[in-house]
Every structure is written in C-alpha cells, then in structure tokens.
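TODO from last week: model Pituitary specific transcription factor 1.
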Amino acid sequence: ACTLKAILAKWLDEAEQAGALFNEKMGMNERKRKRRTTISLGAKEALERSF
C-alpha cells in the first residue's frame, strides 16, 4: 500500500505541474481573440428553413 501511495503522489505532482504549464500556455493564447464565424446569406436561409 505504501508503494501505491508513493506512486499516486508522484503522479499527482506531475499532473499538477503539467496542468500549471497548460494554464500558462492558455493564458498567453487568451490575448488572441478568435474571429467570429460568418455564415453567408444563402446558408443562413437554408439553415432557417431546415430548423
């Protein structure tokens, strides 16, 4: 049981570090704004008829 606890503790530490790195990268990309999707008038009308 002690080995399992040690393995899980190590895994948790690695996962938390990876999560912190991921959050830092996401923070850098957060400044870039995604462009809004544009739909042509014909496609919009076809969608409105279908739904």
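Done. The helical segments are 2-29, 41-50.
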